[in-house]
């Protein structure tokens, strides 16, 4: 397995040492709080930043046979590691600065020709730019979200429509996160899904 730049231009180098192994004492440990601390499966990567010393990181997996990978981000200094579905965005130069992404990650892709990266699980999809999250479309599907195409304008996907007993084609605006063609559902507290969340106080991309 190779580090995937997704066509971005990272300032650091990254090497995947192992996609599934126990924690090593010479590596930094990254793990979400909800994961059983006795879990021994994880991914080890070596990161060599442009400034400062190299470091090893062990990233705890959630489901061992789920997605694994290491990816460059729109921010040239950040790294995305997906270990058994757990997603971690880490500063290459300052590994103490990291964010754990929600959900069990199933896909990562760049928006062609743009400094944007889409990340999705079975229900949700989020878009990240140079300054972090741009928007998050929550519960686009109850399960089984399937991304089929990404262009600079839109993201095409299929979602199950259980009332119709078939898949339904939807389209998500890259600029706004607005979902076209979605099956609207009522959730707790009468919230209607899909629900779009936007990052606050940030510039375009």
Outline of the structure:
The chain is an all-beta fold.
What does this structure look like?
The protein has two domains: 1-101, no CATH class; 106-205. The chain is 0% helix and 47% strand. The protein has strands spanning 13-21, 28-30, 42-48, 55-60, 69-72, 78-83, 86-91, 98-101, 107-110, 117-120, 125-129, 132-138, 146-150, 154-161, 166-173, 179-180, 185-186, 192-193, 195-198. The strands form five sheets. A five-stranded antiparallel beta sheet has the order 9-10-11-12-19, with no helix packed on it. A four-stranded mixed beta sheet has the order 1-3-4-2, with no helix packed on it. It is globular. The two termini are 29 Å apart.
Summarize the SSE layout with pairings.
Layout: E1 13-21, E2 28-30, E3 42-48, E4 55-60, E5 69-72, E6 78-83, E7 86-91, E8 98-101, E9 107-110, E10 117-120, E11 125-129, E12 132-138, E13 146-150, E14 154-161, E15 166-173, E16 179-180, E17 185-186, E18 192-193, E19 195-198
Parallel strand pairs: 2-4
Antiparallel strand pairs: 1-3, 3-4, 5-6, 6-7, 7-8, 9-10, 10-11, 11-12, 12-19, 13-14, 14-15, 15-16, 17-18
Features:
single chain; 205 residues; mainly beta; 2 domains; five-stranded antiparallel β-sheet; four-stranded mixed β-sheet; 19 strands; 47% strand; globular
Secondary structure class reads mainly beta
Query: How large a portion of the residues is in β-strands, by DSSP E?
Result: over 45%
- Return the average pLDDT rounded to an integer: 90
Number of helices: 0
- Name the strands of the widest sheet in spatial order: 9-10-11-12-19
End-to-end gap = 29 Å
Instruction: Please summarize the sheet with the most strands.
Output: 5 strands, antiparallel
Helix content: under 10%
The shape, in one word, is: globular
- Count of spatially separate domains: 2
Order of helices and strands: EEEEEEEEEEEEEEEEEEE
The total strand number stands at: 19
| pLDDT < 50 stretches | 201-205
What is the gyration radius calculated from CA atoms? 17 Å
